[in-house]
C-alpha cells in the first residue's frame, strides 16, 4: 500500500478477502474453550490448530506432517504432566463469597491456577504454526501467565516478555488499540499493546458514552457510515448486554424549530431500514409531555422517538483488553514509546520507557501500529510525516439524577447554532453534552471544559428545561475529551469527517479517526492493511463476536445487577463476587457501582494511580461530588491493601488525584 490516505467508511462493501490456496496460516474467530467460529451457523469444535492450506482438511481440522505434530504435542507436555499427576479434578477450596455467613478476616490474594483447572480457569489456548522467532519454554510460560491478566506478580515477567519479537506492536491503549489487539490475538498473531498513560486515558474515557448509528450523518448523505454504525451498534447490543444497553431518545417537535417533523421522520425511516426493524416514531404533544415532564411546553406539537445505545466507554476498553488477554494478547499501561526503531528506513520497533520503574526496553515487531488517536501526529512526526489531524474538543456536564430526572434521553438542537445537544440518564446520574470546538491547548495535559463551553451547555438546558431553573451549582462534575478528526479543511468543526483513516509511512501503520461504535470495523481494516507486511499470515478477517458468552453467576443479587456485572466483567464476574467482603455487594450511594468493584479493580486491573481507579476502572470521580472525596476513607480501607501501597504512596496519590479533579473535572474558573 502507498503512503496515501485510505478512508474506510463502508466496511468491506461485501468484498471480504478469500482464502489463498498457498496461505501458510489462516486465522479465524476463536473463543477460548469454544474452538473456531466460522460464520453465523458455525460448528463448534475443541481448540485445535487453525486450518492450514496445502494439507488435507477434515472438517475444520488441520492435519500437519508427523514431525510437526510431535513438536506441538511436546509443547503440551507441561499441561499434560499436570493433568496426569493430579488425577481427577480436585474440589476447590476458594474463599467463601461475601453473602455466606462465615468469612475469614483477611482477604487472600487471588491464587494462580493452571489452565484447565478451577471453575473459571481459561482453556488451554489452541496451538498454531510456529515461526523461527517463536519463544522457547520460558516464553510459553510468560504467555500462559498473561492469559490470566494483571494478577499479582505480572510486572515480574516484563523483562522476559519485552525481549520477545512480536508480530504487532500496538502503540495506544484506547478503544482503537484495544480492538486491534483483540482481533489480532484471536487470529493467532503475537500482539503487544503499550499505552504511555492509563488504558482509555484519552478520548476513550471521555466520549459521550453513546454507541449510536450516527443519525445526524444521514443529512450529510453519509449512508455507508450510518449503515456500518447501525450494524456495529446492534452487534454490541447483542453481545455485550449489561455493558452496552439500549437508550431511547425523545426529540421535541416545536413550532418553527428545525429539523421539521417530515425530515426527521424520513431519517428515522432510513435508520429503521438499515437496522432491519420498524418502530413507532411520533407521538402527540400530550404524550410527549408525559414522557418528558420537565421539557418546555411552549410551541410543543409532539415529538419524535427513536432508540440508540449507551455504554461505559472506559469499561468497554477494559473488557476488550481482557478478552484479548484470553487469546494471548498483552497490554501494558504506563509504558511510553519514546522513539521508533528502524531497520534501514523501515520502522520495526520502539524504545519503550516504563513509567513504573524508569527502565527502558527495545521492543521489535514485524509491524508497528500507531493507534494513539488524537496524539497520532506526534508519533507520526518521529517518522517524518506532516500533521493531518484536527483535534476537536467535546465537553460534558454531569448532574445528579434528582436535579435533572429523565426516563429517557432528550435530544434538541441548540438555540444558538442548531447543533445537536442531548441529556440522558447514565450510571445513576444525568449526562449533558456535547460541544464541538477546536482544541488549541495542546495535548500534553488533560483537556478541560472552558467557561464558554459551560455557558453554551447551560443555555441548552435552560431552553429545553426552563421550569427546572438549573444552575452551575447543580453540576457535579465536568469532563472534556479530544476527538481525533481528520483535517479536511472544513470551516465548521461539526462538518469535519468522522471517518477513520489508515496511513502507511516508513513501515509504520497509523490508524486514527472514526467512532467508538465502529471500533471492530476499524480494527479489521487495520489488520487488512497490515496483512501484506506479515509474511506467512493470512485471514479472511470476517467479523467475530466481540466477546465470548459470559457465564452465569451465583449470587443473591438483583437481575439488573447480575446483568451489569456480566456485561462489564465477563468471565471475571463470579470471581469479583467471590472476592467481596461483608457489605461490598451493596451499591455505592448515588451510583450503580458496587463497593466490590473497587476491590477487584485494585487487585486485578493494573491500577497505578488513584485516578485510574476512580476515573476509569470505576466512574466515581464523575458520579459523586468532589470526585468522591466523602467516600475516600472507605475507598482507602478497601483498596490500599490490595494495591500494596504504604501510607506515603496512598497520601501522595490521593493528593494528586484531588488536584487533578479540581483542575480538569470541576467547574472552570
TrEMBL record:
The keyword Chaperone is assigned to this record: no
Stated name of the protein: FAD-dependent oxidoreductase
Coiled-coil spans in chain: none
Keywords from the named record: FAD, Flavoprotein, Glycerol metabolism, Oxidoreductase
Disordered, as annotated region: 1-26, 116-136
Family to which the UniProt record says this protein belongs: Belongs to the FAD-dependent glycerol-3-phosphate dehydrogenase family.
Cofactor: FAD
Pfam family, one: DAO
FAD dependent oxidoreductase domain location: 167-515
Domain Alpha-glycerophosphate oxidase C-terminal: 557-649
Organism of derivation: Massilia frigida
SUPFAM superfamilies per UniProt: FAD-linked reductases, C-terminal domain (SSF54373), FAD/NAD(P)-binding domain (SSF51905)
Keyword Flavoprotein among record annotations: yes
Gene3D superfamilies membership: Alpha-glycerophosphate oxidase, cap domain, D-Amino Acid Oxidase, subunit A, domain 2, FAD/NAD(P)-binding domain
Amino acid at each position: 500500500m502507498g503512503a496515501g490516505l485510505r478512508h474506510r467508511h463502508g466496511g468491506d462493501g461485501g468484498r471480504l478477502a478469500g482464502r489463498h490456496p498457498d496461505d501458510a496460516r489462516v486465522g479465524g474467530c476463536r473463543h477460548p474453550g469454544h474452538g473456531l467460529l466460522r460464520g453465523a451457523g458455525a460448528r463448534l469444535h475443541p481448540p485445535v490448530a487453525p486450518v492450514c492450506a496445502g494439507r488435507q482438511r477434515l472438517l475444520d481440522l488441520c492435519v500437519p506432517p508427523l514431525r510437526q505434530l510431535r513438536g506441538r504435542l511436546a509443547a503440551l507436555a507441561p499441561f499434560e504432566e499436570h493433568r496426569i499427576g493430579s488425577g481427577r479434578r480436585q474440589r476447590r477450596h476458594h474463599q467463601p463469597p461475601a453473602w455466606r455467613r462465615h468469612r475469614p478476616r483477611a482477604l487472600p490474594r487471588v491464587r494462580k491456577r493452571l489452565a484447565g483447572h478451577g471453575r473459571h480457569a481459561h482453556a488451554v489456548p489452541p496451538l498454531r504454526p510456529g515461526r523461527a522467532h517463536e519463544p522457547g519454554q520460558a516464553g510459553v510460560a510468560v504467555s500462559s501467565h498473561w492469559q490470566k491478566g494483571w494478577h499479582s506478580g505480572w510486572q515480574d515477567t516484563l523483562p522476559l516478555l519485552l525481549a520477545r519479537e512480536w508480530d504487532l506492536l500496538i502503540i495506544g491503549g484506547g478503544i482503537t488499540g484495544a480492538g486491534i489487539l483483540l482481533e489480532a490475538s484471536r487470529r493467532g498473531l503475537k500482539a503487544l499493546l503499550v499505552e504511555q498513560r492509563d488504558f482509555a486515558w484519552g478520548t476513550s474515557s471521555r466520549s459521550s458514552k453513546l454507541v449510536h448509528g450516527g443519525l445526524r450523518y444521514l443529512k450529510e448523505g453519509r449512508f455507508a457510515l450510518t449503515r456500518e454504525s447501525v450494524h456495529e451498534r446492534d452487534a454490541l447490543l447483542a453481545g455485550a448486554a449489561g455493558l452496552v444497553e439500549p437508550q431511547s431518545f425523545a426529540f421535541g417537535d416545536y413550532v418553527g424549530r428545525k429539523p421539521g417533523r417530515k425530515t426527521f421522520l424520513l431519517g428515522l425511516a432510513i435508520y429503521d431500514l438499515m437496522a432491519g426493524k420498524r418502530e413507532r416514531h411520533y407521538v402527540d404533544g400530550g404524550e410527549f409531555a408525559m414522557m418528558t415532564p420537565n421539557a418546555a411546553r411552549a410551541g410543543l406539537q409532539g415529538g419524535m422517538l427513536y432508540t440508540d445505545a449507551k455504554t461505559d466507554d472506559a469499561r468497554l476498553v477494559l473488557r476488550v483488553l481482557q478478552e484479548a488477554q484470553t487469546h494471548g494478547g498483552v497490554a501494558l499501561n504506563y509504558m511510553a514509546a519514546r522513539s521508533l526503531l528502524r531497520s534501514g528506513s523501515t520502522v520495526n520497533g520502539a524504545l519503550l520507557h516504563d513509567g513504573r520503574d524508569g527502565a527502558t526496553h527495545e521492543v521489535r515487531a514485524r509491524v508497528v501500529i500507531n493507534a494513539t488517536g488524537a496524539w497520532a501526529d506526534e508519533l507520526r512526526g518521529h517518522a517524518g510525516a506532516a500533521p493531518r489531524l484536527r483535534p476537536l474538543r467535546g465537553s460534558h456536564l454531569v448532574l445528579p439524577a434528582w436535579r435533572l430526572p429523565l426516563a429517557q434521553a432528550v435530544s434538541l438542537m441548540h438555540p444558538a447554532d442548531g447543533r445537536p445537544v442531548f441529556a440522558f440518564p447514565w450510571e445513576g446520574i444525568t449526562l449533558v453534552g456535547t460541544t464541538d470546538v477546536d482544541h488549541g491547548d495542546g495535548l500534553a495535559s488533560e483537556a478541560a471544559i472552558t467557561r464558554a463551553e459551560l455557558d453554551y451547555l447551560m443555555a441548552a438546558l435552560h431552553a429545553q428545561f426552563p421550569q427546572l431553573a438549573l444552575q452551575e451549582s447543580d453540576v457535579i462534575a465536568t469532563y472534556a475529551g479530544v476527538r481525533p478528526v481528520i483535517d479536511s479543511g472544513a470551516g465548521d468543526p461539526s462538518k469535519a469527517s468522522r471517518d477513520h483513516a489508515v496511513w502507511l509511512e516508513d513501515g509504520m501503520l497509523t490508524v486514527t479517526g472514526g467512532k467508538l461504535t465502529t471500533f471492530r470495523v476499524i480494527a479489521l481494516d487495520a489488520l487488512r492493511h497490515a496483512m501484506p507486511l506479515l509474511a506467512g499470515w493470512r485471514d479472511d478477517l470476517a467479523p467475530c463476536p466481540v466477546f465470548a458468552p459470559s457465564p452465569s453467576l451465583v449470587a443473591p443479587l438483583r437481575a439488573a445487577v447480575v446483568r451489569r456485572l456480566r456485561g462489564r466483567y465477563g468471565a471475571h464476574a463470579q470471581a469479583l463476587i467471590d472476592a467481596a467482603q461483608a457489605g461490598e455487594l451493596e451499591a455505592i450511594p448515588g451510583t450503580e457501582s458496587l463497593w466490590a468493584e473497587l476491590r477487584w479493580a485494585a487487585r486485578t486491573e493494573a491500577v497505578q494511580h488513584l485516578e485510574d481507579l476512580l476515573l476509569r476502572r470505576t466512574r466515581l470521580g464523575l458520579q459523586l461530588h468532589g470526585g468522591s472525596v466523602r467516600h475516600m476513607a472507605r475507598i482507602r480501607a478497601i483498596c490500599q491493601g490490595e494495591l500494596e501501597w504504604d501510607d506515603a504512596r496512598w497520601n501522595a496519590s490521593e493528593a494528586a488525584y484531588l488536584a487533578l479533579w479540581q483542575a480538569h473535572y470541576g467547574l472552570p474558573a
